[in-house]
Design brief:
alpha/beta; six-stranded parallel beta sheet; TIM Barrel; 20 strands; seven-stranded mixed beta sheet
Length: about 525
């Protein structure tokens, strides 16, 4: 069969990784012998017309996508449009949002045929064997679909016991050079499962409370292949990478034994790290670790079942500093029963630990305890507009705090950061910036340029230019500068860097030069000169 998978748009400002879940599904489809493609609209411009044209040109038997809550509506609409373009195709949707809102999804979007709940790899593999026999869909656990009697839920599927049975993600189907040009890390998993009970999180419900591990050699095989393919930054996306201390040490040992050089980051809990383990991780290349702190108020931490204490936060932050690892603490605003005092406690703790920190707003996703059992909490959910579930503005209230007060708290925290950033950009514009500011601001504008190249398909639409290669390149630089409002010398320098590193290639089309994104970068860099 022909299977088309869609990676729906996701804000580039949120630094998305290549879509890991979708590449696992693609790998399963490919292993079963199906002709599989991924239409990636994360790093390409999107339009309804482009989607329809690509679907029609491919002629799929199956069209699938996944999403999180914040881009669910976009993904669902795209799948519905794909159904219009290929009416005979079976449409599938998976991911955490639809896993816990499957019936509403099917009711609201008649163009979606099947929702795949929970871990999807085995479910999809089984479904493909009976895809054209809908009477047999009931035999497959992990599906929700319609039939003549209404909506059918086949019940949850048992979790995959041996994660080493999963194929390697099919990243070769993605335009990886575009992600590499952005400089964002590639995500991998070394385990699935979360033993914790935070009321605002879906982790344990999606992938189980018992942590299941991939074997260390297989994980490092994947990392080695990524590094050799030109990916120097790896993000380990486990819910809790540091769940097993002995395994973390084994992982570090394997990296050092193979002599791999790359930077990696992880998510962890403050009560699972200390200076010794962090120093070992640092030696193996770990440069950053993110902690979900959520609140500086002990009572609030107990209320949300976080299972940590402020003292543990302090110790973990200090251990990061001593180990030379960049620590990051994430706090949540709008937790159940929030008042001004817990917010003040969070601010006090955040200042005390003196590591990078950020505040996000509670998003009560479908399937979370805080949403499903909201009658037991001092919390009011103010909207079910999933587009607003991006944690960037308040969408809840408590008895003591309204959304405007929550927003004001975070805005006040961000004021000094934004003022310092504005001053750095001002100095940069007058060639008076420090070396660090020049790197940060220049990097910001470079990223803005790349965002525009990707989101607006600038190379695809504006690079057919007459003349010699170097002249065509200068003409392209001028066009990009015009379209983005950036300095032309800056634009030319950064475009040339993208070309030299192999992210952009030249194509001769008759007498015209066209510049295009490379699918995967070559192992050897391009020559320094375009001539």
């Amino acid at each position: 069969m022909k299977i088309a998978l869609i990676a729906p748009p996701y804000p580039l400002a949120e630094a998305p990784s290549p879509p890991l879940g979708l590449t696992y599904i693609a790998a399963v489809c490919g292993a079963a012998g199906h002709d599989t493609v991924i239409f990636d609209y994360i790093v390409r411009g999107y339009s309804d017309e482009k989607l329809a044209a690509e679907i029609k040109a491919f002629g799929p038997d199956v069209v699938g996508t996944n999403s999180v809550t914040m881009n669910f509506k976009k993904a669902a609409r795209m799948l519905s449009l794909a159904k219009q373009a290929a009416p005979s195709a079976v449409t599938l949707m998976g991911g955490p949002h639809v896993s816990f809102d499957a019936k509403n999804t099917l009711a609201d979007y008649p163009g979606i045929d099947i929702v795949v709940t929970g871990e999807g790899e085995v479910t999809v593999a089984e479904l493909l064997t009976v895809l054209h026999e809908p009477v047999r869909w009931r035999e497959i656990k992990g599906l929700v679909f319609r039939d003549e009697d209404g909506i059918v839920d086949t019940g949850p599927r048992e979790l995959i016991r041996d994660l080493d049975t999963l194929p390697m993600p099919a990243r070769h189907l993605l335009p990886m050079a575009r992600y590499q040009a952005l400089g964002f890390p590639v995500s991998i998993i070394t385990s699935r499962g979360c033993p914790n009970q935070c009321i605002f999180c879906l982790g344990r419900r999606m992938v189980g409370q018992k942590v299941r591990f991939r074997s260390v050699p297989r994980v490092v095989d994947e990392i080695q292949a990524l590094v050799e393919a030109g990916n120097p930054f790896i993000n380990i996306a486990d819910d809790l990478f540091t769940a097993n201390r002995k395994r973390v040490l084994s992982f570090c040992d394997e990296i050092l034994k193979r002599g791999l050089t790359f930077s990696w980051s992880v998510f962890a809990r403050v009560n699972t790290v200390d200076e010794d383990i962090l120093k070992r991780m640092k030696t193996a290349g770990c440069h950053a670790i993110s902690f979900g702190v959520e609140s500086g108020n002990p009572g609030m931490l107990k209320r949300v079942k976080k299972g940590i204490t402020p003292d543990q936060v302090r110790r973990a932050a200090k251990a990061c500093q001593k180990a030379g690892i960049r620590g990051h603490a994430s706090f949540i605003v709008g937790l159940p029963g929030e008042t001004r005092q817990p917010l003040a406690d969070s601010l006090k703790l955040q200042k005390e630990i003196d590591i990078e920190s950020a505040y996000h707003f509670l998003s009560p996703f479908p399937g979370t305890d805080v949403r499903e059992n909201i009658e037991g909490y001092d919390l009011t959910i103010l909207t079910d507009d999933w587009d607003r579930y991006d944690a960037n503005r308040a969408i809840v209230s408590t008895a003591a705090l309204q959304p405007c007060e929550m927003n004001d708290f975070v805005d006040a925290f961000n004021t000094d950061i934004e003022a310092a950033w504005a001053l750095a950009k001002e100095r940069y514009s007058h060639n008076a910036a420090t070396e660090e500011e020049t790197m940060q601001v220049g990097g910001f504008f470079r990223m803005e340029m790349i965002f525009a190249l990707l989101n607006r398909d600038i190379l695809e639409n504006h690079s057919g230019i007459e003349g010699p290669q170097e002249g065509a390149f200068i003409a392209l630089s001028r066009k990009v500068a015009e379209l983005t409002g950036l300095d032309q010398e800056f634009t030319e320098s950064n475009l040339r860097d993208l070309w030299t590193k192999g992210f952009i290639r030249t194509v001769l089309s008759g007498s015209r030069i066209r510049f295009a994104w490379t699918h995967h970068i070559p192992l050897a860099p391009q020559p320094d000169s375009l001539g």
